[in-house]
Structures are given as C-alpha cells and as structure tokens.
Specification:
The structure holds two protein chains of two kinds. Chain A has five helices and two strands. Helix content of chain A is 36%, strand content 3%. Helix content of chain B is 52%, strand content 0%. Chain B has a domain of 132 residues: Orthogonal Bundle (Cytochrome Bc1 Complex, Chain D, domain 2), CATH 1.10.760.10. Chain B is mostly helical.
C-alpha cells in the first residue's frame, strides 16, 4: 500500500480536470498534517470516523478508515485522489441527492485532507 | 495497620499535589484545535450518555408529536436556533460552528438512539462545557416539543424532502436560501453584505 502512495498522490499534481467529474482541479500535493487539522476544523469528524482522530462515534457518513481501498468515491466517481478532491469541494454538484453538505472547504484545505486520508487509510 | 493508613494518605496527598501543579503550570493543552485524548473523550461521552439517561427519565410523557401544526413550528425554531450549529439533511452548519471542540453533533440521526424525552431534556437544559446551551428560559416547553417532533422525523428524511418541507412551510432557510454561502466561505475575500446569510 505504502509503495502505491506516491503514485496516488502524483495524481494531485497539475491535473487540469478531475477525471469523470469535469471539474477543474489544479495545484500541488497536500500536507497530511494540515489535513488532520482541517478534518477537525471543518467538522468532518462530526459525521465520519477518521483514522487517527478522536471524535464521536459517528455513523452519519461512511467511515474514512478504508478510503484508499475503496473502488468509488460516494458511489459515483472512481476512487482517485483528484476525484476525492472534487467530491469534498462540490459534493452536491456531483451527486445532487447526497446528504453530504457543501462544507465550504477551501481548495488548499481539501488538498490537505485528501493527502491525510490517502496516507492514513 | 496505622502505617498502611499513613502511606495511603501520603500517596494521595502527593498525587493531589502533582495534579494541582500540572493544572497550575498551564501545560494542559486547552486549544480547541488540539483534540482530546481518546480516553478523555470516552470518559466525558460516557458521563454525558449516563447523565442524560438518568435525568431525562423525569421528563413527562411527550405530547402527540404527530399533531398537525407541530412540524411547521418546529421547523421554524430549528432553522432559527439549531441549524447554525447542527445542520440539517444536506445542509451544512454555519462555518463558525465547525471548528468547535467538541464539534456539535449532526442532528439528522440523533433520534435513532435517543428517545423524544431525552432530546427534549438536552434542548431544555443544555450540556456543560460542550457549547450546547439550555433553552429553558428562551423557548416554551411546547416549542421545544415542536423541535423534538421535527428531529424525530429527520432520520427518514432525504435532503430533498427537507428542502421541499422548508419551501412548502414558507420558512426562510438560513442556509438553503443562500446557495452561495458555502462558496462565499471558501474565498476569503468574498465578505457577504449585512443582512445576507453569513
């Protein structure tokens, strides 16, 4: 798993579009440590179980413990880091019936969250 | 025997002194950005669950939560007082609430593991050190029950059904009426004008 990580994160480099979502995505690799902070500060832990984080026993959204092993993001996008980035930024554009709200996550913070999730799960 | 007693007292005194020194030193990390230890969290959460179960037992029988008129009133109060911190199906809480420690729980699923009386009790009396205020002097009991009527329906409510209910009851939604709120929160320079949703 660990050996695949750099490859997976490379997907975050210089992508012109999120594959499958058609949403523009650009910028660099996120910082996992900042991502951990962002997962707390955007209230992600209120609904999701997050690896390595203390929080309520939340079962509103899916557990994020196995994110890197999933086939799909939210059941609608192939699981790639750039698709996860698009999903965090605009969940309701990607799946209009989703219960996941647009949390107003800034793009750099979303990038950091993706880096944390794919290195920790 | 006397030796044992003296030793026990001495050990307890030393422990108390160490604990006091630790607290007074200021090393305890009070920052909300730093999480609790899992053990701290587990202890507080257990105390919270046990206390609610005990004290909510004194709440009387709930009124008929299916009576007409209760839902629109509950929705109005929910949108005015609750959604800012707790969100709603498909609706994010306001940005200020997201960084709180503990983070206000999403209410959508709460009725799956709490009784109407427990939900009523928490709204009325609040929860110490959590940011959850008691609404006892701000809302009448009947108004709190109206909120409970809504909350008990939320686990089976889709985001679309919630939006339709907000529309059909004519309740001004703090978040849903402002689809640009999340986008505005995202860009630091977009400050909404007074009277707008953020």
């Amino acid at each position: 798993m660990a050996s695949l990580l750099p490859l997976a994160l490379l997907g975050l480099l210089g992508c012109e579009e999120g594959a499958g979502s058609g949403l523009p995505v650009g910028g660099g690799i996120g910082d996992p440590a900042r991502g951990r902070l962002a997962l707390g500060q955007y209230g992600c832990i209120a609904c999701h179980q997050v690896p390595g984080m203390t929080g309520p026993e939340a079962h509103v959204g899916p557990s994020l413990h196995d994110v890197a092993r999933r086939r799909y993001v939210a059941g609608v996008l192939p699981n790639t880091p750039e698709n996860m980035l698009s999903w965090i930024l605009r969940p309701q554009e990607i799946a209009p019936r989703t219960a996941m709200p647009d949390m107003g996550v800034k793009e750099q913070h979303a990038r950091d969250i993706v880096a944390y999730l794919y290195t920790r799960s | 025997m006397r030796k044992v007693a003296i030793t026990v007292v001495a050990v307890l005194a030393v422990e108390a002194a160490v604990a006091a020194a630790w607290i007074y030193s200021g090393f305890y990390p009070i920052a909300a950005t730093q999480q609790h230890l899992p053990i701290t969290y587990a202890v507080i959460e257990t105390a919270y669950n046990r206390s609610i179960a005990r004290y909510a037992a004194s709440v009387g029988e709930p009124p008929d939560l299916a009576q007409p008129g209760l839902l629109p009133e509950g929705l109005r109060h929910y949108q005015d007082h609750c959604a800012q911190c707790h969100g709603a199906p498909g609706v994010a809480p306001a940005p200020f609430s997201l960084g709180m420690t503990p983070v206000p729980p999403p209410i959508v699923g709460i009725a799956r593991h709490r009784t109407p009386a427990q939900i009523f009790w928490v709204i009325k009396h609040g929860v110490k050190m959590s940011g959850m205020l008691g609404w006892e002097l701000k809302l009448e009991d009947a108004e709190i029950w109206a909120i409970v009527a809504l909350v008990t329906r939320m686990p089976t409510m889709t985001p679309i059904a919630y939006q339709e209910m907000v529309r059909s009851f004519g309740v001004p939604p703090p978040e849903a009426a402002c689809p640009t709120v999340a986008a505005a929160a995202r860009s630091a320079d977009a400050v909404p004008a007074a009277g707008e949703c953020l």
